[in-house]
Please model this.
Amino acid sequence: MIEVRAARKEDAPAASRVLRDSISALCAADHGGDPERIGQWCANKTPDVFVTWLDQPGLHVFVSEQNGETGCEIACVGALVDSGMVLLNYVDPRFRGQGHCTAMLNHLEAVLAGFDVEVATLESTATALDFYRRAGWQDAGEPFVRFGMAGYPMRKRLSAASDRALTR
Model:
């Protein structure tokens, strides 16, 4: 069973590595391997910046862990703002396909439902678009371009997440 927990300051080096590795290795459909685009995307994914996220009011950062080659390792990083937007859901490439992103998304939705958010939003990458659609998220507007890459606005009514949160 995958457990998701609140991120801590000591997670910063590993969590920022997960973010950068995920973007670099798994998001080629978005950045096309362009070092400049990857650099722009990863610019704020440093341990120092990660630590500042933990102290921002209304921003909630989470990690999931898995036993790996060197013991318990951070496998996925997720974040949301309590107003209803999912900001991050990135998996370490070594742990892709093992349920971490799904567990993280379920956790993020349940947290938002607990904040009485009725409709959550996110901006998907091309890489993650089908993942979110399979999870019940719907397109919520025309794609936009940021740093030369397409972003896809999505939304999801959280009534199902509210029901899950109530039964735990």
Q: What stands out?
A: Residues 12-26 form the longest helix (15 residues).
